[in-house]
Amino acid sequence: MAGGDYSDDGRSESEAERLDRNWNELLQELRVLQTGTQILTGFLLTVAFQSRFEDLNEFQVAVYLVLVVLASLTTALGLAPVSLHRWLFRKRAKDAIVRIGHGFLQAALVGIALTISGVSLLIFDVVWTRTAGVVSAVGTLVVILLFWVVIPALAGRRR
Fold this sequence. Notes:
80% of the residues lie in helices and 0% in strands. It has helices spanning 15-47, 58-88, 94-127, 130-158.
């Protein structure tokens, strides 16, 4: 584009075009995160109404309640960019929407990583042993960190 600003990724686009593209990319990521988070949250909310729930010990109930809170907060974080956009829509605040939305998305990813790991802990603890639960939770978290942090960081360095 003649006369356009050049962003750091080699594209020739204006600031407004870059922000629109970044917002659209953020929305695509949010759609994936929101679906998974909402399904996981819904699953957790139904657990308390199962007949076997009464068999859980105090530790398992505590883990379950922490997971419900964590999943609920993660769902709220995943939906927060939508609310942010609604509040700032047509106020020439796309830069703030993208920047703050990015922060919400990163926080939601941390929340979903902890929730997934915690669900693994709870399920293995109920079905097998506490030790298996802890190993499963730590292993799950390590794999998530590898896939979500380490590999992208290494890919970014190679670029």
